[in-house]
Structures are given as C-alpha cells and as structure tokens.
Amino acid sequence: MQVAAGARPISEVGEFGLIAAVSNLLAASRVRSAGMLLGPGDDAALWQPRAGRVVCVSTDMLVEGVHFRNDWSDATAIGHRALAVNLSDMAAMGARPRTAIVALALRGTETERWVYDFYRGALALAHKWHVRIIGGDMSLSPTAAVASVTVNGELRNSEAVLRRDFARPGDVIAVTGPLGLAAAGVRALQLGRTRIDGAPAMLAAHRMPQPRILQGMLLVRAGVRCGMDISDGLFGDLPKILEASGVSAEVRADRLPIPLAIRWNFPDWFDLATRGGEDFELLFTAPRDVVEHAAGLFRRLRLPAPVVIGSIMARKGDESQLTLRRFDLTRQDVPFGAYDHFSAKPGTHG
Amino acid sequence: MQVAAGARPISEVGEFGLIAAVSNLLAASRVRSAGMLLGPGDDAALWQPRAGRVVCVSTDMLVEGVHFRNDWSDATAIGHRALAVNLSDMAAMGARPRTAIVALALRGTETERWVYDFYRGALALAHKWHVRIIGGDMSLSPTAAVASVTVNGELRNSEAVLRRDFARPGDVIAVTGPLGLAAAGVRALQLGRTRIDGAPAMLAAHRMPQPRILQGMLLVRAGVRCGMDISDGLFGDLPKILEASGVSAEVRADRLPIPLAIRWNFPDWFDLATRGGEDFELLFTAPRDVVEHAAGLFRRLRLPAPVVIGSIMARKGDESQLTLRRFDLTRQDVPFGAYDHFSAKPGTHG
Lengths: 350, 350
What we know:
homodimer, alpha+beta, CATH 3.30.1330.10, 2 domains, disordered C terminus
C-alpha cells in the first residue's frame, strides 16, 4: 500500500531523517544574509551582526493545549505563530530581526507533513521579514508538542530602543492597531461561532498574528523610547510600563480602538479587548509631537495611524495607578490584571 | 497552617510572581558582563559582542520523561543540565559562551522551590563560565515540563572554529575524556544499581555533565579546525564528521578511554561506551602535530590529556566508512548508529 507523501508518522521517519529533510528545507529558503557564516548542520550556528550594531535576543515557547490546539490551527499557522510571537518581541524593542533558532519537541505521532507545514509557516513569515532560520533542535515530547523559538535582532545603538522604563509624565499613550481581535477569535472558536460577523479578521488575528516590526523600527526612528507589544492585554501590559517607569496613567474608554464586530457579538467585549491579550499590537508612550512625527512616518509607508488612548502622569503616592475615564466620563481605578499562565486552564485563555 | 518556604505549588504563586522572583534571582547573580546593556524584565534582552567577534548561537530543549526524570535528578541537576548541554555546543565550536536565555514550561504542580533550585543549578554553572542569563520565558505545559535554553557565544573570527566538515585524510582522531560514563549512570539508575563500584562518577556524569569549554577554546587556539561534542555516542557522532567531510576513519578499540568500572559492571560495556551518548566530551580530528600542540596547552592548564583513538583516511568509494580495529586486531565495519529520539522509548535512552 502506498502512503501519501508526508503522511508517515515521524516515529517511523526518525529524528535524523527529519533533521536532514528540514535542513534541506532551510537551505532552500531564499533569504540570503550577508552576516551568515555557518548555517544549520553543525553544533551551533554562526552569524555576525554588522559592526556597531547591538544584538537583541528574545525567546518564546508554544505548548500544545496551552498556546495552540491542533484542532483550532493547522501546522502552518502554528509555525507562523511560533516565529511571530518572537518577531513581535523584536518589534516591541524597535529592533530589526535577523536570525531565528527553532527548537521543536514532538509527540512522535505527528506526520511528516505536519512538521513540513510547521516549517513552511515559519519560513513564509521569515521570508517576509528577511529573517534567516539558522538552526534548531528536535526532540521527543510524548504528551504535548512544544515549539521554542529564539530570535536575534539588531539595533543601531543601545539608546535607540523601546524600553518599558522610559514613560514620563506628559507623554501620551498610543497603540498601533485594534484591540481584542485575537481574544475574540479564541472566544469564537470556543463557542463554535466561527461564522459571526467579523469572524475572519478575528480568526486571522489569533491564527496568523502579524508582528509590527516596521512600526517598531519607525517608532524608534521617530524618537519614541518607551514601548512594548501587547501580549497580555492592555490592562495586563500597560501596568508593566507604569511600574517600570514609576508613573501613573489615565486611559480614555472612548478612544480605545475596539472593532465594532467585537462590541456587537460579545457581551463582555470591553474585558475581551482590554484583558484578552495576544493582539501583538505595539503599546507606546512619548511626547505628543514625537507621536505625531511617528504618525507621519507611518503615513508615508501607508501603515494605519497610531491611536492615542490616554496619557502618562506623575504618581500620587508610592504606587502606580491606572485610571479609566469611562464612556460616561466618570473615572474608575483599573485593577492590574493579565492572563496568568499558571492559574488559567489550558486552552481557554483569551 | 504554615507552608514551608518555597513549597507552594506554582499554580498558586502565579506566573507573574514567579517571573518577578526569578528576575530577582538573576539580578542578584554576580556575573558582571561588560557587553550587557539591558537585562531581564523587558520584551527582549540586549547585549553587544566585542567589536570584531563572531556571535555563535545554540539551542537545546529538555523534556520531562525524555531527557530528565524528576525521580532520577533533582531540580538543581536539571537546571545544570539544561544549560550544560548548550554550553557543550559552544565548546563543540570552540566558542566562549557569553549569554543564555532560559525558557521554562511547567506543569503548574511543581513547587516554587523546584523552580528556584532549577535556576540555582543553571546559575551555578553560568557563574563558573562567566555566562550571564539575560532573559527567558515561562509558561504552562500541563503534561510534561520542558526547559529550552539558547546560548550566545563569541568567536575570535569565523575561521577559528571547530566545524564538522574539516576532517582531512591523515588527521588523527581524538577525544577529551572517558566514554560511556553518562550512559552507565543512566543504566545504573534503570537497574537500581546505584551502589556499584564507580557509580558516583557515572551518576555525576549523567546528572551534572561538565561542558568542555576550556578544551574547545584551547583546541581552536592550537589550530584544530574539526570537532564536535559527543552527545549521541562515538559511533553516532563520528559518522557525522565523516559524512560532512567526505572521508572514512579507523578507530582502535584498545585506544578507547572506557573506564574499568563500566567494563566490570555491564556485559554490554562496549556498546554503552560507543553508542550510549550524552558524555559531552569533545571529539576532534587534526594533524598529529596539532593534537600534540593542543595536548601541551591542556597540560599547562592541568587538563586531562586528549586521547588519540584512530585516524582519518580517504574514502574508498562514494560512502564514508567507519572501521573498528578490534582487540584481536581484526577489522570490522561499524554500522552508523545513534540514539534516535523519535524511535526510542521515553526515559530509557543510554
């Protein structure tokens, strides 16, 4: 009996066959990088950042059942996502990503096709941003697959970077795009309501998140020095900036870019948008004229304009406070809150 | 009721409490690194290699039940091991390790103490080699804990490196230390024979493997250009050099540094030593005078002398061959063979 190409379980193909096949896939990838000295196939990979550049490193791990489900995303989307969350960390620093390392631990029951599709998803995104996958590791994880990716990026110098501890009173707070789409996508999948109005954008935001790399680099170019990516929701992440910078903030509910489709479909749309997480838009603070300068750079590259959602102010006491100015113009203290991986149940976050 | 410090399950402590505690642990670590620009606590970490140096990157993942078992190793040993396997990849390149990134996915039922012990194990080894842990990731993995570590190292230039494809006919083959100790340690644990003669050295080799960083750097200094670390056993790893370099080899059984305690205790001692793996000694090839030069450098630093075990020769046909000259001086073709993660049963390799 003939088995369809790529349908063999990887326990039959074996680690070494699989590594050889994936190395070929990587070698065939069309990204040529001047600084590449030694690619996959040796104990470690070599690359050299251009002289005078600062190396920026990030890592993120995706665990089956926690960060992805095979019945909700196909392997291509999972590969995309594994790289995307790391590229988003580069965007969150304003860095230009250069190389990625992919470690994959598999159950052994996945098909070859699953592995190739995973790499295809990662490679497609890598190509888009001229990132080279320079190496990795493959091993067994009998109970749940794990993908762990590390990305190296470059910065012009160590001052031109988006940090969390540089918010200053008088800064305005802005985001690069809509809030809550990814969380709404997870919710739609949980409820089996994948045909509601606006669902394609929600599902795409969850399955194929787009790192805001260009925006991050332009923000740094414009002179923004404080920023991060929104992975734990606005009310989970903004407090990290406030505490690191020793400041407070007021956010205006009527300014939050929450898509209408989320408001219409989910009664708890405000929580979804502010605490749902995984949006990977950038959150940043800067003086208003710097934000306007950034908006001008965005416009020139036809990127959506950043949205100002509030402002930074001095602390009143020892603690950072986050105040929400509600739709009825009353003010409310916002409890700091984010998705907590260890307390939440697997596969239900959002 | 009072709970002992560190005995809370981490599902109670929560991800953010744990990240804060671990960040403190890392900040208190005494390694000061000139190139460090921004440490843990932001979206990514920054570091800058000294001008003119080449960055070398490696990653390795440890999965519970596959690469470690909590009943065989304590958390400190697991933390040590997670970093050690990566440092060994640096040693295998002849690179000087500088920074590490640690991603940890936990079941949620581990105690706080487990996590701190894990980091203590990693930090102790990091201190020893002046490596700075500059960041990481923490998430949930309900069915098996996973530790994924990425290390960045430096090389003087891209020629001064140990590669797999630089073995030349006429080279001798050498290793930096004994073979089979780690595999014998795993075997002793499997059989419950942890009190046999020589067991402490075997168990230590499995639990707290020592990366041969100094040896790797000295080999490069001496002019060695071909080498790797032995993670899949001599007969699993030497073929990788032979195939990458397009050469064949003869290994002399009587020259293999196999400790007497392994020969005495295990009937299959020869397979244990040549196919067991996880020894993390370095395997390298070079002209005899270069190896003697390296031996001189080793001696000056009171490191054990490298052991010559065979020689490289030209291929006879299209295929690389590995010949074993046995104790009775007869010759035997060695089938290439290594531990295959996807075909082997979890927790039994060695």
